[in-house]
Amino acid sequence: MQTVTPMEPDVSIEGGCMIRVAVLPIGLVPKARLRDYAAMLSRHQRVELSAISSFYTEHQKSPFTHQPWDSGSLRFRFLLGGTQTSPWDDFQSCRKILAVIGLCHLPSLPDLDVVADQFASASRPYSSSLVQRCFAFCPNDAQ
């Protein structure tokens, strides 16, 4: 009898085509607000290539010339709270976190310098990320 080893949780054939994005709460974000902010992101799990354009000008050699711009899409996997890095990340690039998004609820953390410092600290473990952005919600007039 053959024994079948189960795949790791979270692993699928389809998962290899997704860009993994760590979504990190910055400061104290109420759970209900965090769910709302994460829901805003989840609406963008699939972005049609026809809705975006290449940033290369015509005279540059774009690595994206053979992409199906009329029918292709970018797929994102938002990991709320991030994930642990793994020694396998270097061998399986689909496991790498390629972007970090910070979500901050400004009424609970009014000092923007502290927000920037906390976001920089929270995104530091994700050395494979190519893009880091922090979004701050519900600012007051002074902010």
- Helix count from the secondary structure assignment: 2
Distance between the termini: 66 Å
Kindly state the percentage of residues in helix: 10-25%
Order of helices and strands: EHEEEHE
Query: Which stretches of 5+ consecutive residues score pLDDT under 50?
Result: 3-7
Average pLDDT, rounded to a whole number, is: 82
Number of distinct beta strands:
5
Query: What Rg do the Cα atoms give?
Result: 18 Å
Protein name: Trs120/TRAPPC9 N-terminal domain-containing protein
Pfam families: TRAPPC9-Trs120
GO cellular component, one term: trans-Golgi network
Organism: Nymphaea colorata (pocket water lily)
Provide structural commentary.
- There is one protein chain.
- The chain is an alpha/beta fold and about 140 residues long.
- It has a domain at about 15-45 and about 75-85 and about 95-140.
- It has helices spanning about 30-40, 110-125; strands spanning about 20-25, 45-50, 75-80, 95-105, 130-135.
- The protein is globular and about 50 Å long.
- Mean pLDDT is about 80; it is low at about 5.
List the helices and strands and how they pair.
Blueprint: E1 19-26, H1 31-42, E2 46-48, E3 73-80, E4 97-105, H2 112-123, E5 131-137
Parallel strand pairs: 1-3, 1-4, 4-5
Antiparallel strand pairs: 2-3
Question: What descriptors fit this protein?
Answer:
alpha/beta; Trs120_TRAPPC9; 143 residues; 2 helices; 24% strand; Trs120/TRAPPC9 N-terminal domain-containing protein; Trs120_TRAPPC9_N
